[in-house]
Each structure stands twice: as C-alpha cells, then as structure tokens.
C-alpha cells in the first residue's frame, strides 16, 4: 500500500489533497504534517513512498525539508506544492532533486498524474535496487580461506579508487568474479560494466570491437559503430585474457590508458573516454614480455594493483562452502529440493585434484545432484565424480 505524506501548513489544502488522493485510490494511505519541521520528523521515523510538500511554511520551508531528506532518504520522491509567486523556487527545487511541482489550487488531473508517475518511479527504483543486490550477490566470492580473505581485503581497499587492476590465475578460478566485485564496490557501480574476452575475438577484429569503426573502414564496415570503450564510458571495462591480445591492439589500449582517448578504426577524430580498466590473464605476462608477445609498458600501466586468484587445490578449505553454494543455486535453477552432501562425500571431494578449478567443481556438483541419491554419499562421489 503506497504511503503518502502531505506537508502543508494550510489545513484546508491538506484536507483537500488527502481527500483527492483517498478517493482516487483506496490503497493510498495518506498522512499529514502541519509544517516542515513536523514533516521532517515523520520522515525520519517512518517510511513513505511519496511526499507532497508545500514550499512556504513556518518553522522550516519546503526547500529546507527537501535538502534535509535528500541527505538521509534520497530515494523518496518529492512533489513540491507552489503558490503563484513560488513557481521559480519550485522549478529550482527540481535541480535539488524534487520529482515535480504542482501549483495552488491543485488541478485534479495534473495532481493525480504526477502522483502516479512519482510512485511508479519509486517502484522502479526499488525494483532496480533489489535486482542490483541480487546481481551483486551472484558475483560474491565464496570462501573463508586465507587466500580468499586476502583477496577480499585487497578489493575493499582498491575498489573505491581509480587504480587499474591486473588479475592473474589459472582458468576456472573466478577471475571474472574479482572483476565484478571491484566494479560493484566502486564509485562506478551504477555505470556500465563491459566485459571483453580478448581470446574469443579474431585479431583482425579486436581493434574494431574495442574502439569501434567508421563506415568504409574495411569491407564489412557498412555503418559507423561504437566500440566497447565507448560503451563503458563512466564505468568499467574488463579485458579478460588480455595476454591473447595482438600487439597492434595493445598499442591502442596503451594510448587509451595514457591519454583517456580512443580513435575508431578508419577515423581521424579522437574520442575522450572515462573508463576504469580491469584486466585478467591466465598467462605469465613476464614470460610473454621476454618473448616479445606482450608490451612491457602496457603491463606496467595495467598492473598498478596485482591480484592473484589461487587454484582450487590451494584453497581446499573452501570446498564445503562452495558445494553448499552450488547446491543451493542449482536447486533454485532447476526448481528442485536442495540435496545434502554427506560429510564423507565432502571429505572425498576435498581430496580430489581439481585441475579445472571452481568451474570443474560446479560441474561435478551438478552431476552428483542429477545422478546421485537423495543424499549425496561417498559412493555417489566414487561413481559419478571420477575423471
């Protein structure tokens, strides 16, 4: 039930607004406050989906109420109520974050349309916030081992900064999770996170993919196209498997990092971008540099912060937590009851050689859930988890 607060010092107008809203929709719960100070106290002590607030009031005017609430509960939409002489002030309140304003005496259709739109915006914002939390949780790193706790500590320190990060580690260890976590905990979290798998893009197309191209730049360039760097503007670009990037593309990435400028393939005009770069690789880049396959200057640009993700064999203490996590997720995906793993089954899985790391463990857990009994036993593991 939407909860609306009307802050208005004129009792007659308060009653009219309350009556209009109640008659329009019997699910609206309308409360009143006789001045700005009383309204602010109500907002501090309760949750509202919308506030209708007069501008000129004793004790505390509407602008002061708006500014105070935006500091403590910025998600609440405000609709300002303005007298004829307050229109300029009402318009200025929108720069301070007000959703809209209505004039006195309120026009019925205008009032109801504004209220509905403001409540829709609030609902959408709440849904987006819930979705964001759900997405963020899906990228959470599972584990309490010393290596994982060390990575979590680094992320907490590094994420709020603009420092570039190079993530290393074998395939299947969760390097992309580290990248997502860095983004989710950064000041850029509300901006795009653009992922590029450098190993999956042919070398002749990587520059176009990263920087875009103009019409006619090459045979199949039938129209202008922006690249991943432009798409990630104000956000984060994750260059996965950067060790597989061609040397010409490396040179252009280096320029983008040095100057915050890119140039589309076939164009002469520079485009300014504001992008945080996070890269990952399963290769030994020092060896790649020595053999002439990776630029040393690019390495030093990328590796401001180095995060090494351990192999699963180096964090066996986390396997029980990972099994529990995957079991719950698979049950949710398949719409089935969550199966239990016996202590003996878990102990046996901890002793396996996980060359495919977490990715392999996830596959094995799913196989055991499908093929095993109601409780996954040591026998199930020996039958279905063998390589």
From TrEMBL:
CDD domains: AAA. Residues 141-370 form the Sigma-54 factor interaction domain. The keyword Transcription applies. The modification 4-aspartylphosphate is found at residue 54. Keywords: ATP-binding, Nucleotide-binding, Phosphoprotein, Transcription, Transcription regulation, Two-component regulatory system. The keyword Lyase does not apply. It comes from the Bacteria. PANTHER family: TRANSCRIPTIONAL REGULATOR (NTRC FAMILY), TRANSCRIPTIONAL REGULATORY PROTEIN. This is Fis family transcriptional regulator.
């Amino acid at each position: 039930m939407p909860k609306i607060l009307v802050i208005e010092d004129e009792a007659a107008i308060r009653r009219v607004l309350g009556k209009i809203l109640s008659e329009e929709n019997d699910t609206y719960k309308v409360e009143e406050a006789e001045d700005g100070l009383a309204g602010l106290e109500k907002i501090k002590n309760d949750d509202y989906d919308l506030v209708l607030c007069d501008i000129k009031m004793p004790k505390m005017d509407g602008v002061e109420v708006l500014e105070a609430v935006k500091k403590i509960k910025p998600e609440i939409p405000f609709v300002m109520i303005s007298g004829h002489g307050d229109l300029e002030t009402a318009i200025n309140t929108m720069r301070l974050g007000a959703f809209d304003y209505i004039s006195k005496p309120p026009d019925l259709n205008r009032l109801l349309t504004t209220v509905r739109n403001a409540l829709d915006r609030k609902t959408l914002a709440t849904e987006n916030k819930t979705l964001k939390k759900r997405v963020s949780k899906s990228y959470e790193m599972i584990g309490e081992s010393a290596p994982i706790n060390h990575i979590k500590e680094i992320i907490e320190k590094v994420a709020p900064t603009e420092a570039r990060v190079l993530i290393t580690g074998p395939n299947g260890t969760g390097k992309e999770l580290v990248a997502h976590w860095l983004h989710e905990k950064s000041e850029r979290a509300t901006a795009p996170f653009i992922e590029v798998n450098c190993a999956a893009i042919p070398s002749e197309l990587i520059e176009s993919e990263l920087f875009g191209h103009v019409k006619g730049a090459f045979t199949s360039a039938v129209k202008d196209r922006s690249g991943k760097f432009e798409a990630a503007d104000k956000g984060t670009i994750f260059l996965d498997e950067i060790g597989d990037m061609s040397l010409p593309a490396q040179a252009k990435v280096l320029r983008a990092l040095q100057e915050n400028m890119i140039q589309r393939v076939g164009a002469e005009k520079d485009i300014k971008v504001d992008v945080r770069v996070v890269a990952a690789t399963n290769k030994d880049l020092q060896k790649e540099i020595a053999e002439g396959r990776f630029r040393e200057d690019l390495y030093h640009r990328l590796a401001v912060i180095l995060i090494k993700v351990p192999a699963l064999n180096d964090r066996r203490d986390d396997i029980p937590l990972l099994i529990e996590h995957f079991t719950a997720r698979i049950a949710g995906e398949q719409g089935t009851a969550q199966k239990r793993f016996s202590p003996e089954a878990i102990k046996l899985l901890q002793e396996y050689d996980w060359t495919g790391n977490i990715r392999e463990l996830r596959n094995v857990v799913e196989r055991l859930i499908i093929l095993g009994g109601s409780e996954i036993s040591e026998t199930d593991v020996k039958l279905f988890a063998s390589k």
